Amino acid sequence: MIGKLKGLIDSYGEDFVILDVGGVGYQVHCSTRTLQHLPSPGEAAVLSIETYVREDAIKLFGFRTDQEREWFRLLQTVQGVGAKVALAVLGTLAPADLANAIALRDKAAVSRTPGVGPKVAERIVTELKDKAPAFANVDPAVVHLAGAVDDQRAPRPVADAISALVNLGYGQPQAAAAIASASRSAGEGAETAQLIRLGLKELAK
Predict the structure, then answer these.
(1) Residue 204: which pLDDT band, with cuts at 50, 70 and 90?
(2) Which residues of 146-183 are buried (b: 16+ CB within 10 A; e: fewer)?
(3) Residue pLDDT, tens place only, 137-156
(4) Does residue 22 carry a pLDDT above 60?
């Protein structure tokens, strides 16, 4: 099983790179994001590798980091997500952005991926929600609030305040983050209007 390849870039294809390792050219499939960050032909590169062995073929998938490879594996645990869709998601969102999107239940960010519709995006953020916070760099309080809003467990004033900010044109993650901060400032029992006011101040910073 191949886990890493180090060699010289030989050439590029539409969704793959040929990596020359000691005179042997390995065809490695990569996300568009990974391909864009690799050097020019003739220069050295190192890729973390995921090896797929099928009855009729052996396929190599390459990643710039082990974390990106881990996300490739995680994504494919979701029903309806295969290697092609997983690569497309990683081509659209960097691992940190993907972790944040899942932690904040941001289905819209995931569905920006070509070929990923609302239903698949919903499954990704739902089925991986318990795995994303470990990778995310967002405030745990915001993750908790986003989950509470999504599951309709958030206090009414909080949910209404987030809804109001979304209606003003802010994205759900930004609105949730602002209201989470506003809730900390205002304390329990704050009214919707107060939360909206404080939330707008947060967003204006």
Answers:
(1) confident
(2) bbebbeeebbebbbbbbbbbeeeebebbbbbbbbbbbb
(3) 555 656 556 656 565 667 78
(4) yes
pLDDT of res. 151: 56
CA distances from 110 to 17, 92, 97, 130, 205 (A): 25, 8, 10, 16, 26
Which residue ranges form the domains of the chain, and what is each CATH number? 4-63 (2.40.50.140), 66-134 (1.10.150.20), 140-204 (no CATH)
pLDDT at 166 (0 to 100) = 85
The CB-based long-range contact list for 194-198 (8 Å cut-off, 24+ gap) reads 195/157, 195/158, 195/161, 196/161, 196/164, 196/165
**Is the CB of residue 47 less than 8 Å from the CB of residue 104?**
no
User: 2: closest CA among 86, 61, 71, 66?
Assistant: 61
